[in-house]
## 1
Amino acid sequence: MVQLLWKNGSANQTLITLLENCKSMSEFKKIQAFFITSGLSQHHPFASRLLYFSAVSSWGDMDHSYRIFLQIPSPTIYNWNSIIRGFSRGKNPNPSVSVFVKMLRFGVWPDHLTYPFVAKAVARISELQLGLAVHCRVAKEGLWLDRFIANSLIHMYGSCGEIGSARKVFDEMPMRNSVSWNSMLDGYAKCGDLDSARQVFESMPERDVVSWSSMIDGCVKGGEYGVALAIFGRMRVVGPKANEVTMVSVLCACAHLGTLEQGREMHQYMVDKALPFTLALRTSLVDMYAKCGAIEEAIAVFREVPTDQTDVLMWNAIIGGLATHGQVRDSLELFKEMEVQGLGVAPDEITYLCLLSACAHGGLINEAWHFFKSLERSKGMAPKSEHYACMVDVLSRAGRLEEAYDFIAQMPIKPTPSMLGALLNGCMNHRRFDLAERVGRKLIELEPDHDGRYIGLSNVYAGVKLWDDARTMREAMERRGVKKLPGFSFVEVLGTLHRFIAHDKTHQESDQIYMVLNTIVRQMVVDVDFETQKHGFYDIQL
């Protein structure tokens, strides 16, 4: 290797070549070991190269990178930027800010590359005060006109929810590029201001795949799933080819709306456009098919992925999907498969939530307790309010209402509306109206502006024929100004989604719909009469 190193008389170029071909941390450490034993690691250019590749590579290890950094006698701004950048991209971006402060204390002056890395770290931890301090230093040093820095500040403010400051930076930029527009659009979308996001989107001189993806993702996160699909339809006609980020958002929209035909169409789009079927995309497909009622198609997509290439998100999607479809035993068997195959995939909090949901659907109390206690014993995990709510649901569905009530009373956290709602449903199903009244009143205390809480308690009183109390609840709801939101349903016909509420006459084809509906109802009556005669069920008068 020494001969190779000096073969062309360029040790630096040889090091770069070795590092560029490096595929893992173990390979990197072998290269580093050679340079340590040869004494080359003491030379600043080599140490800087080692630090850079360790800090910014996808296979890098920031703890190891920081140890390399500490061994450099007099770090240059290039070295400081490398370590700050590495931490800003890692699982924990907080050290990026700490290293930046340490750099200032050492008297090293930041350059135009330092601030974007620090701003990225601040954006990820969403610390507005830190962001303001960074912006203040940028202004003092006269770097605010730098487009690279200004773009990072827009992104930082948008991520921190300070969209007004992001807009101010955007408006003061003398020259904007596509990153500037995309950062502003993404900021509005993250803050839920979809009207302003649309204005920016329509005003953009050019829209790339990031622009379209940000707009679609913003609509999905804002609950405007139909709008998201409409924008994607427009993108297919006049925009660029979608990427993984776009399709994950689009599939999420289909999943929420339950539009199976559109979901299948999106799946075919990915095939036709030869998009790489990444793990994230396959997981989104599994989730979409499961939520749209096509559990067999969800299983088929799941089984297409080699088990050694799966992750916990994909397992959660299929385990949760099976549970939702009532295939409880299959759901639990799949969890066992995940454990016994030695895949290195450890269950997380969502996995246990899916398992508890499966137990609730299947009435499996003992299994539910087993999973709940396993979560309590798990290292680095603890039951959250959702897990407690699921456990209450398990007990309530099974009629173990007193046990559920005691479980809530003994919890280390305060009861949430979802927990009490699960208990109330159990009380109603098992006709424990005395306990239902107590729970219903507590729910109104917790959510006095929620229409369902008043209606729930009113139904409790109606269940025991306390009509005056039931009417009082409705009146209390009206006095408080709480209005009942109408429930609605979606029906997908030939890929088009139709929305209906009870007694709806707004649909353009209402006359035909009600004509068919009345025909079906009449046929149901005829069928019932026929079955009655067939089995000899007669109303005989004596």
Note: Strands lie at 488-493, 496-501.
## 2
Amino acid sequence: MAGNRTAAVIFAIVIAFAAFAPLPSSSSHRSSSQFRLDKGGEEKFGIADDMFWKDGEPFRIIGGDLHYFRVHPEYWEDRLLRAKALGLNTIQTYVPWNLHEPSQGRLVFEGFADLVSFLKLCKKLDLLVMLRVGPYICGEWDLGGFPGWLLAKEPPIRLRSSDPVFLNLVEKWWSILLPKVFPLLYSNGGPIIMVQVENEFGSYGDDKAYLHYLVKLARTHLGDDIILYTTDGGARDTLEKGTLKGDDVFSAVDFTTGDDPWPIFKLQKEFNAPGKSPPISTEFYTGWLTHWGENIASTDASFTATYLEKILSKNGSAVLYMAHGGTNLGFYNGANTGDNESDFKPDLTSYDYDAPIRESGDVDNAKYKVFLSALRRVIAKYSAKPLASIPPDNERIAYGRIKLDKVSFLYDMIGMKDLVDLVESENPSSMEAIGQMFGFVLYASEYTPTSNGSMLSIPKVHDRAQVFISCPEDSDKRPTYADVITRWSNRPIHLPYLKCESNNNLFILVENMGRLNYGPYMFDRKGILSSVYLDSTPLYEWKTLPLSLQNVNESPKINPIISNTIKTAFLKGSARKKLTELNFEPAFYTGHFNIDKVRDTYISFRGWSKGIAFINEINVGRFWPSVGPQCNLYVPAPILREGNNTVVILELESPKPDLTVSSVDHPDFTCTSKLGKSRGRLVLTS
């Protein structure tokens, strides 16, 4: 029965393997009534006299970003209450298109994607909402919130532009999204006081037709009473390119914590109509993001609070980015680049952000306390209403050591014959071209070996390729590991000589480590994006297989072909013996732990290499302790259950020798990068 349970878990995790409109008018919409000062009894939120006004009274936004899609839905209320206790009156959140439409035409508004329930919860807790509907959001989220299937379109779409094909798809998306939020606008009795279009567009482009179109489309669905706003960096160049002058769209700013805010707010006025420019930083940075291979980002609490007070002391408004960061569950983490697109920097699974409310919801920390003191001093000046009490930290439990067993090599789960989703082509295809948005793709070909071995090069691979070779006749032998080729340290590798009766098999497993979410290289297709060269000669005739593992908020699916392959692997005695061998071949490991009391925990992966983890069939994200800094993955209590809990790991390289992980009660960001070469390949370094 244990073997059957294990197989069932693997079945649940492995998803089924996947087998012009004219340019709309760019003319500006008529001047709206959004800024009128209304002192009647009707619920109104507007701008006048360089102030926000709520129901006819001056109002100051003291807000914070808290993203519903980075928090388990059962913890939404917990996190919102902690934000309210901090003194916040407004929640700002993005809406990621790719979470809600993961494949074209398949719409998801449940679970982590239940936006309407989140907004209604904000209303229940008397929190206002600033909704950032995109279609681009950035946010250290895969492809800046755009769905990956946009990258499969031919000819290629120009994202964030007035490309008619792109705008047509945006229109279809917003025609679904915006009617859902319309009943929740403040003028309709809901919590939404402002809606942001695009995000920091002035740092990317200068396409006013695109911005005008978004505004017109938003007005079509949301009407004239809602404040539409843009956010751009507080410099003249970015504001010139990213704003629409006039009184139809409010231009907000963000800037580096430590900059003097008031000269920036003075500049902001130039990009708003007279009297329509309340000073606000819509992204006041409480911390910062962290990439794999870097030290964990940390900012001084007192320093940050001092600059927040500089805004609040003169009646400015601010939105903390982040108030609570949360977690990049599944495969949704984003990435950045440096000077070129090869300088690839994927984000951690944790999105703690060094925010005052930590990833696990903890508020017993210096930053929360300092911000609490600063905000309460300001709030006391204009409100006698008692503030919410501060909730205690949620209990965490260390459930201890969890013994794992290797249950299957990844390649034992895959047959390259008669697979309905197998794609055959002369050259390798991108992941998106074969319908694969996240996870992994396997490329296979054949070549004639030479006695001295061969040199393999892939000029463009996104993002990380593990290379294996084998003899077709040696089906009982494990593939031979050759090396790794990465996007950030691309170099030719040596394929050792294998004496086979015929050609050698070549297998290349490519991992999508998260699409770029910011900058000029955002059109970030994944997989092998160039020819593959063997001794400087292109290699042709490829078989490509999508290996789609379950992403967060997806229902487990079973592929009968994969199921049969797994069952065969479990039944073979020879396969059982091979499972005890240690090598660099990707493999699944599983274990169980029993609990009587369900609480938050962390899983420590110290000693492991790199991979993906699933707890009770939920993808809790990537681990990479060999590069760091993140050692432990946060597991919120709603993922666990009383009694038996299952851990499944896909380890891409070599496991911890004793095949154990540990459930611990604390985060850990002290795993350090291995500098230089490691097992014959370069790794990310800080």
Note: The longest strand covers residues 400-409.
## 3
Amino acid sequence: MIWGRCFLSAGLQCCRWRVSCHVKRHYSFLPDDVKSLRAVVNPDISKIRNIGIMAHIDAGKTTTTERMLYYSGYTRALGDVDDGDTVTDFMAQERERGITIQSAAVTFDWKSHRINLIDTPGHVDFTLEVERALRVLDGAVAVFDASAGVEAQTLTVWRQAEKHHVPCVCFLNKMDKPAANLSFSIESIRQKLKANPVLLQIPVGSGKSFTGVVDLLTNQKLIWKLKSTGDDGRLFEIKPLDQSDAPELLQEVNEARTALIEQVADLDDEFAELLLTDFSDSFDAVPSSKLQEAVRRLTLARKGVPVLCGSSLRNKGVQPLLDAIAAYLPAPNERHHDLVRWYKDDLCALAFKVLHDKQRGPLVFLRIYSGTLKPQTAVHNIKRDSIERMSKLLVPFADQHVEISSMSAGNIALTVGLKQTVTGDTIVSSKASAAAAARRAQNDDSETGKKRREYASVVLSGVEVPDPVFFCTIEPPTMAKQADLVNALSCLQREDPSLKVRVDSDSGQTILCGMGELHIEIIHDRIRREYGIETHLGPLQVAYRETILHEVSTTDTLDRTVGDRRHVVAVELAVRPLEDNSTSGSCELAFKEEVDRMLSAEMKEAVENGVHSSYLQGPLLGYPLQDISTLIQSVYMQPGTSPAMVSACVSRCMLKALRLGGGQILEPVMSMEVTVGEEHLGSVLGDLAQRRGTVRDVQSRHDDKVLLATVPLAETMVS
């Protein structure tokens, strides 16, 4: 039975203008003229783009981000993941492994637009970083390896973007690889992601001969003639297609542009009406500006996803991608956040990430939805009902930040001084502004007869944290370091909500729970490097779960005298397994109507505590329970009975019912994608069978075979 689902992949892996017959264009400054973050444009909200870069491992997210920063003028040199000198991969663990571990935010400008960009990890262990980034972003760039198309983790991040209704632009990277295939990648987006790819560019050349792209909107060629491997790609040629170009290219462009116009017309009624009214004689005569406007409408409505291509590592195609971000992805005011209208011009922001700085203390990332944020001001945390003073306000730029005097709505800010705020908290200017917003929401709902709990409608929804799938013990080198270890784990939990820490009630050992082997390994390494504690990790264990198979009703009575006081409780309850289509991992509790009316608030809380404590430890092997519903049918208690005795009786009755219900162990199952040469297919199939794996499908990708299988997590661990 599948209680948690993850995705794995088998492979981890000085310029001057020149006058000529065509235009040569560059989009930045001389190499030594690096912009300051203090000079970043602060435009109207319609010119702001909050975007994320998301993809499978090794698709080129960080390399693409590095090129964006370079071409926009905010870095002096092009960083390389293999050299460990990129801006956004600044952690020691990231530079050593060549992967992104935590999301990093950078701010830069491009053609009068301010772009707040978050580079996210591609590894499944750090999927929470993608989740909380997409929660606050307005758009996303999905990067694909053009030789592989949609890969395992691509599916995960795409589903996360869909959950938050985030419009996307697709970038087919690595077009210079010999196996790069445009039509294969487009088809995989259509088939696997169930999306409508709107192809805006086609490549010029293939493999090592890839030199640029043709813009189908303008019928122009963009060619990068790199004279050496050190050429930075700032300078490229733009010229219209003419008869001197290869006939095959002209035919391909003509067919692709016709298909583009027809596809946009099918998806956008306004554009279809324009074609039939003004361009019925020749659809090809439609202006590129009208076509671009229609593509933007499709993107914002999530009816289609623009597709561009290039090679970030070879410095080709990134500038048009930046143009597409500004042209097609939404501004903050084009995303419909209902509660913004309740706050009007008052501050409303969501905390979505926390970092710990040794000098500054906790650094909290905020997405500002309304109002203006200023340093040295007090703010109200609705969730914690507390007031905190923000001492400094910073513009994020990976691990280098610049202090500023204010930040307006629609931006992403970094704050210093919020010591209690954690991921998912709603920050407002004052308790009074939250109350005023709640009243506006109540007044608006009065016509429909809705009744909302105070503040319920004016609190931003937080970030969903997945359940951990691995756990192990962690011990300090000496008992003298125990307090330091507790402090380190507390700080790391605040930074990373997917990290869970608990203390075993029997052994007293500290248990570390995480999203995977790499996740726990990184945590262990950070404790050693950042906090100077040489901890010892126990063997990794899989986090199993328990459930029941049958519906059971049972009763239990507790009659106990403590001192001169007699406690008598009788409980009748029923437990049943939840249906397969229920919310994964949930356990429910309900009371019969007459019982709900009879119980006082104190006794009702005691019953709930008894049930929830039983959910924490199953009757078979002591693992937490899931997918169980409990109905409290009757509760009798003698006057003077303490709530603790009520909880004890309910827990005992629950244990009896769970044992009678027929226990079942649940284990996490991984959805695995294995790319293998055809000559090794039999060996891999045999290995999967030994690991209790189930092959769902075998597909072809170029000369290789791709196995889609499900395998128990315990069988994927390296022994």
Note: The longest strand covers residues 565-577.
